[in-house]
């Protein structure tokens, strides 16, 4: 591989199916609907106090660097509702649609925040579950995992899910604020399901708020 080609494969690539026209539109609608439904489920799980962590497993958050930002946007969205109501209070045909839109926006932001809180990564007897919000849920049984190490990777400008490498060396990156903390090497290139489409990767890199505790939990299941 030439130096230019190697640099290109090291750059994070957005995961996106090659779709066009109506098929691309349908895919976008399905994803938007799935994200909306996941947000509502996350609100329900938060109200019931039931985070999605497998029995006997330990959950590990990954959203701390962006949590404050999401909370700020949530508060601002909530403040907008009475402000808009005050401005258009006397215009009924405009007031009610804007209020409905404002409430929907607040619930959407709340669902986004809670999807991170109620769906953490987890380490348990059956393996590692990799999460990202309400959409991503990757099951990695222990027999599939070759090693788990703390390796900080910086991926400037990378989307929250991206690919690096090529062929049998392709890596899935789940990043928060342009970096990941843990590298999970797989025994062999493995097909993993993602909302954007299935991908075959040799390793998964994830963000974890407490990498040391995550590795301690891993060591109770594999040396």
From TrEMBL:
The chain crosses the membrane at residues 69-88, 94-114. It comes from the Bacteria. Keywords: Membrane, Transmembrane, Transmembrane helix. This is PH domain-containing protein. It comes from Microbacterium esteraromaticum. The lineage of its organism: Bacteria, Bacillati, Actinomycetota, Actinomycetes, Micrococcales.
